[in-house]
Amino acid sequence: SSGDSLSLGIREPVYEVIEVKSDGMVSTRKISRRQLLKSSGLRPRDIRSVDPSLFLTNSVPSLLVREYAILLNLGSLRAIAMQERVLIFDHDRKGGKAFLKSLLPRLNPKNNNGGQSMPFELEVVEAALLSRIQRYEQRLMELEPRVQALLDVLPNRLSGDMLEQLRISKQHLVELGSRAGALGQMLLDLLEDPEEIRRICIMGKNCTLKKGDDNLECSTPLEKQIAEEEEEEIEMLLENYLQRCESCHGQAERLLDSAREMEDSIAVNLSSRRLEVSRVELLLQVGTFCVGVGALIAGIFGMNLKSYIEEHVFAFWLTTAGIIVGAVIAFFLMYSYVRTRKIL
Amino acid sequence: SSGDSLSLGIREPVYEVIEVKSDGMVSTRKISRRQLLKSSGLRPRDIRSVDPSLFLTNSVPSLLVREYAILLNLGSLRAIAMQERVLIFDHDRKGGKAFLKSLLPRLNPKNNNGGQSMPFELEVVEAALLSRIQRYEQRLMELEPRVQALLDVLPNRLSGDMLEQLRISKQHLVELGSRAGALGQMLLDLLEDPEEIRRICIMGKNCTLKKGDDNLECSTPLEKQIAEEEEEEIEMLLENYLQRCESCHGQAERLLDSAREMEDSIAVNLSSRRLEVSRVELLLQVGTFCVGVGALIAGIFGMNLKSYIEEHVFAFWLTTAGIIVGAVIAFFLMYSYVRTRKIL
Amino acid sequence: SSGDSLSLGIREPVYEVIEVKSDGMVSTRKISRRQLLKSSGLRPRDIRSVDPSLFLTNSVPSLLVREYAILLNLGSLRAIAMQERVLIFDHDRKGGKAFLKSLLPRLNPKNNNGGQSMPFELEVVEAALLSRIQRYEQRLMELEPRVQALLDVLPNRLSGDMLEQLRISKQHLVELGSRAGALGQMLLDLLEDPEEIRRICIMGKNCTLKKGDDNLECSTPLEKQIAEEEEEEIEMLLENYLQRCESCHGQAERLLDSAREMEDSIAVNLSSRRLEVSRVELLLQVGTFCVGVGALIAGIFGMNLKSYIEEHVFAFWLTTAGIIVGAVIAFFLMYSYVRTRKIL
Amino acid sequence: SSGDSLSLGIREPVYEVIEVKSDGMVSTRKISRRQLLKSSGLRPRDIRSVDPSLFLTNSVPSLLVREYAILLNLGSLRAIAMQERVLIFDHDRKGGKAFLKSLLPRLNPKNNNGGQSMPFELEVVEAALLSRIQRYEQRLMELEPRVQALLDVLPNRLSGDMLEQLRISKQHLVELGSRAGALGQMLLDLLEDPEEIRRICIMGKNCTLKKGDDNLECSTPLEKQIAEEEEEEIEMLLENYLQRCESCHGQAERLLDSAREMEDSIAVNLSSRRLEVSRVELLLQVGTFCVGVGALIAGIFGMNLKSYIEEHVFAFWLTTAGIIVGAVIAFFLMYSYVRTRKIL
Amino acid sequence: SSGDSLSLGIREPVYEVIEVKSDGMVSTRKISRRQLLKSSGLRPRDIRSVDPSLFLTNSVPSLLVREYAILLNLGSLRAIAMQERVLIFDHDRKGGKAFLKSLLPRLNPKNNNGGQSMPFELEVVEAALLSRIQRYEQRLMELEPRVQALLDVLPNRLSGDMLEQLRISKQHLVELGSRAGALGQMLLDLLEDPEEIRRICIMGKNCTLKKGDDNLECSTPLEKQIAEEEEEEIEMLLENYLQRCESCHGQAERLLDSAREMEDSIAVNLSSRRLEVSRVELLLQVGTFCVGVGALIAGIFGMNLKSYIEEHVFAFWLTTAGIIVGAVIAFFLMYSYVRTRKIL
């Protein structure tokens, strides 16, 4: 794959990206891999996680913090946030568009009503998380009533069409649940790694992070205080989105569990109904057999052969009575037999 | 959704809340989002977790501690507890009513028989937890005998109606178990985060909580001591409700497991009974086939065609004997064949 | 429920308990809730966990250590162990009786052959754990051979009766496994919380346990040493019972897994046998259909209508041969068709 | 059970053990419980875990380190390793024999080619672990090709016999996997408890282990160094066996998963084939029904009653044509009906 | 097995390995176990994990760091990386070949375009991980579209062939998922054990690693700095491969879940369709039974016996009408009966 064969003489890939500056200016650019590495200070390996051509093998959401850039890989949204600009890969896909729609109003100073504005890269991260989670919430709000309606009518009004709808809803819920779960896991991993969060805070400040030691070292105490406040802000922001993710994930899992229980119940229900059908079939087959034996006897008397009974006056009526009574008795004998063996 | 588009020019939402003062006075008020933020010192983002209009996407129970307020989101109960008053959202729903019923007697000084009373916000938290858990316990106590009765009669007295009842009970148990589990998880998370508990304690006291450091700093040693005693009190209170939650959750899970095992057993039972039915059907089909062959022979002799056998004196009796004996022999041959192949 | 409405004017509950003194004296007493709280130094909330009237909602086993008492809730055994006596609730149930049977010999100084005796409250805890675990072990030893016997004969000698036995055994194993597991979990939680164990040790000694700090402070060094030795003793005792619990739990789970696998295999086995039956049925239906067509033709020639064939000499034999050969050929054509479509 | 009723006047149990001295001398002895306790410095409770008469309730593997002895309970191998000798209980069972076969060559100084030999008790522990794991590996190597062969032929060449083999293989894999997993868990627990390992190291040395503090205190620095080297040696030894256990466990789980997936697939496969059979049956029943209606009409014209049609010249041929054409048309009408309803 | 019986007089094994020097020179060698141990400073036990003859029992991937060598066991790739050379066992298998293909270009100084090159043993480790993960990614990219295509058409175009393809795809996904998961687990374990990573760094440097203490001690400060930079480099490298592993694993699990849900849905779908077929069969059997009764009556009148009805003029038409009307009425009576019992 391209990410690994950089130095092996293969043609350098060129990405078409949308660049959004911190003042809200949007432009479409082509940028080669080499340029990208140079301008962002990233390593070749890092690019892999946002390279949209590797969609299948970097599908786990990730938020990588590097010295001068944050790499965002949230499903169909791939972006690199730097201090003054953000590059959005694969901007034609839904993820990219939703991100732009969420990011641009934030950069408009008019919308920032009085409150202290966050650094640009944080605005980017929040817009990305928000656009992702809102999409999950929207899908959930579409799916929920549909599944609920199915669950309400299903056990009684069962049809192939209903089952197919249940199947498709389950498939969507599995997907939604797994995506919201993966995003939540990413946020949780981030929250449990204070160093990573601190690396977001010191981006673009004169601070350094000593390894092993938990303290920041900044050039001015003010800068240190801002960084620490920002850290708290980021934690609360991430916690907030984590909770929304978990709500989404939990709700999807709950619906999925209900749908699975319903499918199990339908299976037993169908089994039970088939048994009922089989039992009536059995009853009818007992009847058919008895009738068949009667018909055989009648057929025998209908043969063009002389039995010398035909001369008797009441032969017809006796035989007929014999056939009918015999069939009915046989039926009840067999019926009581299968009853006692608890088959019927 | 409303929580995110605050500053984008959308009409500000107004909430209808019930306000309960610490002296037990109850009043219904309308409060706009802006007022709410101002009076509680909360951030816009925090409101999301108690906003009842976002029911679907903030369904995970949460108890958020902020500087001047505790945000409670426990299923259909949404409230903000402050030092002197509590605002209850969505007060027409069951959760809100049960909470009021549980909270008001606690605020009556007559009921406080001698024992030292807890701070108002703790009374609120306890009343909220108590009203929630009591509701789960009550539902469990309704469900338990019904499920037990089903489990006792089911494998033998199987009917579509019974299966439907089992299905509905399972659905309720899944819901109850997941809700009690989520509440328990919330309590556990709270207990494992001593800082959060400490933030409840220092609410309304002249104490500060140093980050990183585990110590409280209060203006007077007495206040510190009270805060520490309160901390222990809160821990025991939460542990107590956690245990009740886990009892509920465990019991629901146990019943659900039994119901699932029962459904599995019913499936095998039905399968086994259908096999029994099928085997008798097979037996009858063997019989029907033999009778059919006999009837065919009889029918052949009944054709209006001359076989020149009709002139023979015993032709009828010989043919009849042949048909019957042949059918019986054929039946037993086929019967023994399916026996040896172990199909019957 | 009663535990919460203490101060709301509801009639105070009275418990009938058996009291065992440390010298082995047994007496039955009635004790009101108020007396109990007073004599044991417990809080109202604590009583909930041993109140037998709340069986359904405090079914999770627990061992709570308070300043002057240990609250034991082990399934049907509910007791409060104090320094000089133990109160047993619900003494008519199996758990209470087994506990008494296990406790009394321990209090008899004659049985204490030379070894150093443990403090009374520890004897109580050990007797309670022992009586519980022995009961689980006994149930397991009853169930194990029964399940094993079922697993040995089942796949081949399948009957509704056997399936019912398997179902009941599974139900018992689920229950046993979940109980042993819950008890084990309780012991594990206790072992992982050294503070709790230390609080058992210092009961009735002049020692205090400083919070945060891991050290005991006792009035005399000897007392401290005794407490530390006791701590080690308790840990080994709990570890021992934990291991027995886990053995029980593991064995029950193992048997349950085998029973589940067996049920799955039976389901597939039944499915496979039903397919076999269906295939033979299909064969017979092919035969029946062919015979039916033959009978129709014979019936047609049996109509009292003139076909003018009846005058031909060999008409009967030709027609008969045609019917039979046709039926046989039709049978084999249809048979080979379903063979090539791999249905039969 | 015997382990608990020591002091209650029950006859003291006597164990028949094999004793292996550190010089390789093997002897069979009878040893009473009292002697055992005295010579090994163990407590009565400890004996439980190696007492073979309690097989059912101490089936979880354990390796307990006491001051002067290591208690080994590895499935059917029960032994007490002391500094100069090892006592093997239940020596007739496979576990004991395999252990002896693995231990004795290690005690032979000729086999110790140059390398520094380990202390006797470590040789015992390694021999025990090795004999156990080799047995699991051997069983896995027997099972693996058999299961693989089944998985290769099964979906297509399905028979009751094959299903039975699959069931039995699954049962063996469940057992093997759970045993290897339990042994691995024991090793993992041991590795995560450095104190336990240190207690093995200082056995027979003049060292003490201070609680809480992580340091050894030995009489001579040399002894301390040896103990520390031994500790590392033990860790590597345990890690090595842990990895082998996990390989075994993982492989068994993998095969089991494949077998389970296969069983699921077989169930769906059987269901699909039964549907196929049912559809052909349905087709035949449609045909049989049409033929039956035709036969009824023919039978009606065959009644010995006068319809006055019999005088018409072409009555026979018209009726016959009507019956046959009608039956064929009815068949195709019903056939197209079930096709449009997507049943066939 | 060979790894354990070293000293018991069994013939020493000889391995055929490929040796790659750090300058890219490749040669095939035979090396005896003894030589291997001597030249690599490994212990006999260590060799087990790379010994290809023990494939079944060391199938869990592992990366063991020893003083002078790194042992790689990644599925079919078994290698020992030393400072100046790497020995590849079992070089004919896919794993070995892919590793060589990935390693050799890295050793070519021309490909190292300007960037600082990594130490040889790290190049080996990265090449090994890369070759493994690329193979998993490749397999996933092959499987994904096939499974997706199946999932798209399956519920409607169900055939035995499709089911078989689904089964095989599931089997491959199970395998791929478990392998990628095991490799990811290995990387995670490595990342969580900083000591192990540090042992890779100091290989071939004048540094020592103090146990317990987290600091390196090197002969020169420069060397220490290089080692620390290398440590960070290794961590990022491992994290990167871990993420790729998890992407692979997650994607395989997601596809597998979808396939499992599909199989469940197919099972319910088949059940539902069989019920439909059964219901139509039942309808036909009701019809067949009624026709059969009619045919019996017709047959009775067709007997060659005198009923004295034959003389009546309208006897034929009355009887015929009676049979037909009776059959139709009987049919509708039975039909409405099974409808009211909700069987049909």
Describe this entry's structure for a reader.
5 copies of one chain form a homopentamer. By secondary structure, chain A is of the alpha+beta class. Chain A has 8 helices and 8 strands, in the order E-E-H-H-E-E-E-E-H-H-H-H-E-E-H-H. In chain A, strands 2-1-6-5-4-3 form a 6-stranded antiparallel beta sheet. In chain A, a hairpin with a 3-residue loop joins strand 3 and strand 4. In chain A, helix 4 (120-153) packs antiparallel against helix 5, helix 4 (120-153) packs parallel to helix 7 and helix 6 (194-201) crosses helix 7 (221-302). The longest helix of chain A has 82 residues, at 221-302. Chain A is rod-shaped and about 130 Å long. Residues 1-10 of chain A have low confidence and may be disordered. Chains in contact: A-B, A-E, B-C, C-D, D-E. At the A-E interface, helix 5, helix 7 and helix 8 of A face helix 4 and helix 7 of E.
Structure in a nutshell:
Five copies of one chain form a homopentamer. With 344 residues, chain A is an alpha+beta fold.
